[in-house]
Amino acid sequence: MSNITSVISGFFEDVGNFFRGRAAVGVDIGTVSIKAAEVSERGGKMSLVNYGILETKEYLNHPNKAIQTSSLPIDENEIGGYLALLMKEMKPKTNLAVASIPSFTSFSTVMDMPLMSPSETAKAVVFQAPQYIPMPLDEVLIDWFKIDEFEAGDNKKYQHLFVVGMAKSVVQKYKTVFKKAGLRLTALEFDGFALTRSLSDAADGDTMIVDIGGEETELFIAAKGTLEYSGGTDYSGIHLTQSLARSLGITSLRAEELKRRRGLLSEGPESELSTLTIPFLDVIIQEANHLRDVFKRRYGRDVARIMLAGGGADLIGVGRYFSQQTGLIETHPNVFRKVSYNLRLEPALRQLNNELALAIGLAERYFL
Q1: Rounded Cα distance, 310 and 57, in Å
Q2: pLDDT digits (tens, 9 = 90+) for 77-91
Q3: How many CA atoms lie within 13 A of 336 on its CB side?
Q4: Rounded mean pLDDT of the chain?
Q5: What are the CA-CA distances from residue 106 to residues 72, 132, 230, 232, 361 (Å)?
Q6: Reduced to 3 states, what is the DSSP secondary structure of residue 80?
Q7: What is the arrangement of strands in the sheet containing 339-340, beginning at the earlier edge strand?
Q8: Residue 300: left (phi > 0), alpha (psi -120 to 50), or beta?
Q9: Is the pLDDT of residue 268 over 70?
Q10: Nearest-angstrom CA–CA distance, 74 and 51
Q11: What pLDDT does residue 266 have?
């Protein structure tokens, strides 16, 4: 097994940090924004001590100005400069960072195989990986974890494994980005793991997490704090914005402003906004229902709840609409169940729950 975390730098190599005061910055490099959360830990309790969000608006008119997409690789020099600018504004007290790997830059799948020891499982994963990862094994890093165990009709024990593969060239780009920003990258993590850690715990039932970004939407199914399935679609926030701009004959910037201000609850002269945005949301919902069906066939369980996160979750009424169309119970993100915060942030808590969920989940990884 080639583990993504250990290959990068040796997680927790800087043991001295434990004695100087534990803190880490979780960095979510998305498609149109960079979000960072500095989290500290004292006596087993974590707290948000600092955060920052840098978002580009140029992508609204020029798609090639996005930070990264499934078809647009990250530019380490440009994004390293953006991250350095964000760190200059935040002034974190630590340079230790944990970053996410977007689903669209990696390959993930769920494997079923006989229950065996971790070392034997690792060998089996590498042996079977070429069936799922369309790259030569010497060019990719492979990470995996066991989801659960189950018995089949032959009364033998099997295991579900979540397997992630990522090109070594992409890892190198991320290392360069963080070096340029003056940060020490201690770990890279598949974003679904970090979101699940931030938004789900052992008491939660099967939940679909819909992370609506600017250029991509990622879908994850989590149960009892464990990521069990993932998927995604290219339909996202920008498609809603561009539809409004074309239909109303206004600029993309103006359309983005209207979308955020009115959402799906528009009435009177602006009621057309809802009519124009719903078809694009329905495409995302169709993909969510498909993922739900695949999950049910594999695990024999149905998803019960749906949770929206990311910048697209700020759209007024969008969670209710997803709930109505899927028949799932709407539940709201609450990343502050385990992480305390300054009470002055209370007015912005709903937005921070949506936008910082991934960054906080990444920072939490440092203290595991």
Answers
A1: 16
A2: 999 999 999 999 999
A3: 18
A4: 86
A5: 14, 11, 12, 12, 19
A6: helix
A7: 184-190, 96-101, 22-29, 33-42, 45-55, 339-340
A8: left
A9: no
A10: 22
A11: 52
Residue 104 — very low, low, confident or very high, per pLDDT cuts 50/70/90? confident
Quote the number of domains for the chain. 1
**Separation CA 145–CA 162 (nearest Å):** 6
> Going along the chain, which residue ranges are E strands?
22-29, 33-42, 45-55, 96-101, 106-114, 140-151, 157-167, 184-190, 207-212, 217-223, 226-233, 305-309, 329-330, 339-340
How far is residue 227 from each of residues 74, 140, 313, measured CA to CA in Å? 26, 22, 20
- Amino acid identity, position 146: K
In a domain, 105, yes or no: yes
Q: Is residue 267 part of a domain?
A: no
pLDDT value, residue 273: 66
Res. 137: pLDDT tops 60: yes
User: 299 Cβ partners below 8 Å, 6+ apart?
Assistant: 160, 228
Compute the half-sphere exposure of residue 211: CA atoms within 13 Å on the CB side of its CA. Answer: 29
Task: Please report whether residue 247 resides in a domain.
Answer: no
**Spatial CB neighbours of 102, under 8 Å, sequence gap ≥ 6:** 29, 30, 31, 68, 191, 216, 218
* Per-residue pLDDT tens over the stretch 226-239: 999 999 998 888 88
Identify the pLDDT of residue 347.
Answer: 87
**Dihedral sign from CA coordinates of 336, 338, 339, 344:** positive
Grouping H, G, I as helix, E, B as strand and the rest as coil, residue 26 is strand
User: The CATH number of the domain where 196 resides is what?
Assistant: 3.30.420.40
Is there a domain that residue 248 lies in?
no
Query: Domain span at residue 69?
Result: 4-242+272-365
Measured distance CA(298)–CA(326) in Å, rounded:
19
Q: Is 202 exposed, middle or buried (0-12, 13-18, 19+ CB in 10 A)?
A: exposed
Residue 19: the pLDDT is: 39
